[in-house]
Fold this sequence. Notes:
The chain has 116 residues and is mostly helical. 73% of the residues lie in helices and 0% in strands. The radius of gyration is 21 Å and the shape is elongated.
Amino acid sequence: MIGFICLFFPAVLSVAMVDAITKRDFCIKQFIYRFCVNTLIINLFCFLIKIFVLGAGAEYIFDLHGNTPPNVAAPYIAMALGAAIVLGLIESLLYKRVGVDLEEDKDEETEEQKEV
């Protein structure tokens, strides 16, 4: 249970932060997409920190019984929560500043139809 919390709870926090900061309610589909991507980004960041900075990449998150010991969970959840907060802030800034607009050119469509 502790391992589940360590791996998935920080992503819920980051999505909730983006939702609160941007003041938009995401539909369930958008929430699931954001949650999955944030989970991947946060855990990748934490694993890379464990490997390259802490030198603890060979340590297991789960023991032989499938439990996560507190001496592994506490540093990991601290890293993951920090990463989730930073990721939530970055996402909300990008959400406010960056927009994607799709634009269709009517002239190209009419030219293509005339050629056919």
